[in-house]
Design brief:
The protein is of the alpha/beta class. Helices cover 51% and strands 11% of the residues. The two termini are 28 Å apart. The chain binds nicotinamide-adenine-dinucleotide. Nicotinamide-adenine-dinucleotide (NAD) binds next to helix 4, strand 6, helix 5 and helix 9.
């Protein structure tokens, strides 16, 4: 048994079909009286439902959350929270909406109650990101960790099958990298393997029938576990590559994770064989990287960066950026091998053996 440090994160989770109905008592539990509801423009309908459940504890709805939390949006939402006298933020939606809640909490310390409707996992982490002048800056702050999370699989039934698959593979990426994290621990390993297995089981069922509540429950359970891993241990090469590709080349978040993960795992396979075994076991395959790509292919998800709009001419620059600011990774970063990884991901080749 290796040595490890365990640092429990506070936070309350209420899980199950229909738990949205418990919103009012959960807000009361936080001692809040005026909650500002946050959502994207597309999710205004569910935000109105949330506002209705809050009744006179709802201060208003802010419906302009967008991907990557532009500083202008964060400022506008903070100003609205202040002018309405909000004492709590309720974020209903995916990682973009949760991210906006975090941007408000970062300045004001307002508690966040989160109602996730994708599998991104941001609700389980103290990590925030704000984009200013085209540059996304991320940081960690205990104030942005949501106090309460209501996981209601009913609310994920409307997430289209394609988005569900890429969002689920985004979650699997958190767990997969958690399995070889420099600061990993045995509890995270258990959660990571179980999270990957739950999503591996659930995603085919969702593709068959997006309204299947059993599959939706399994997927949200898996996403929760994978989010806990993301919030507790350090991510490595895969997340760095996706951050680079998303931030500098404007590639879509979950799809980029889906394409890159098998290749990042293949790169690290020699240095992290036990992690690969756990991934393979969780997905019922013989090779971790292959099992991840097979799952994506079988479910019709993208497997090539060229299909996400990245030009081949950008691969050298992506490689240069990924080599900047070295960070812990089980296998040292080598330019030629990293460039080959990007080439393979661009072409949609099978992950290197
Ligand atoms: P998203 O929040 O941008 O949502 C994608 C789209 O799906 C939006 O249009 C949204 O309105 C819609 N949508 C969400 N749930 C739906 C549902 N149930 N039914 C129908 N439509 C629905 O996407 P995401 O992948 O959840 O989040 C991505 C963002 O989250 C990125 O900016 C990423 O950096 C961030 N993120 C942050 C962390 C963290 O720890 N800080 C972790 C993961 C992701």
């Amino acid at each position: 048994m290796r040595n490890f440090t365990w640092n429990g994160q506070p936070g309350r989770v209420v899980f199950g079909a229909g738990v949205l109905a418990q919103l009012a008592p959960e807000i009361e539990r936080l001692g809040a009286r005026r909650a500002l509801v946050l959502c994207t423009p597309e999710q205004r309908g569910i935000a109105e439902r949330v506002a209705g459940l809050l009744g006179d504890r709802c201060a208003g709805v802010y419906d302009r959350a967008v991907m990557h939390v532009p500083i202008e949006t964060a400022r506008e939402a903070r100003a609205q929270a202040q002018s309405l006298g909000a004492d709590c933020a309720v974020a209903v939606g995916g990682g973009s909406t949760t991210g906006l809640g975090k941007a408000i909490a970062l300045e004001s310390g307002l508690p966040i109650l989160c109602i996730p409707t994708t599998y991104a996992g941001s609700e389980m982490t103290p990590i925030y990101g704000i984009t200013e002048a085209g540059l996304k800056k991320t940081g960690k702050d205990a104030r942005v960790l949501p106090r309460t999370v209501l996981y209601d699989p009913e609310l994920t039934r409307s997430l289209p099958a394609g988005l569900s698959v890429t969002s689920g593979l985004n979650a699997i990426a958190h767990a997969a990298e958690g399995l070889y994290a420099v600061d990993g621990n045995p509890v995270m390993d258990l959660m990571a393997q179980e999270g990957i297995a739950a999503l591996g089981r659930a995603l085919p069922g969702i593709v068959r029938d997006p309204s299947d509540l059993g599959a939706r429950s399994d997927a949200l359970y898996g996403a929760w576990l994978c989010g806990v891993v993301l919030g507790n241990v350090s991510m490595a090469l895969h997340h760095k590559l996706c951050h680079t590709l998303g931030g500098s080349f404007d590639l879509p978040h979950a799809e980029t994770h889906t394409v890159v993960l098998p290749h990042a795992l293949a790169y690290n396979a020699v240095a992290a064989p036990q992690a690969m075994e756990r991934i393979a076991r969780a997905l019922g395959g013989t090779s971790g990287p292959r099992a991840v790509q097979d799952l994506a292919r079988r479910l019709g998800a993208p497997v090539a960066l060229r299909d996400l709009g990245l030009a081949q001419a950008d691969l050298d620059r992506a490689c240069d950026i990924a080599l900047q600011n070295q960070y812990p990774n089980p296998r040292p970063l080598e330019r030629a091998a990293l460039r080959q990884l990007l080439q393979d991901a661009w072409e949609g080749a099978p992950p290197a053996a």
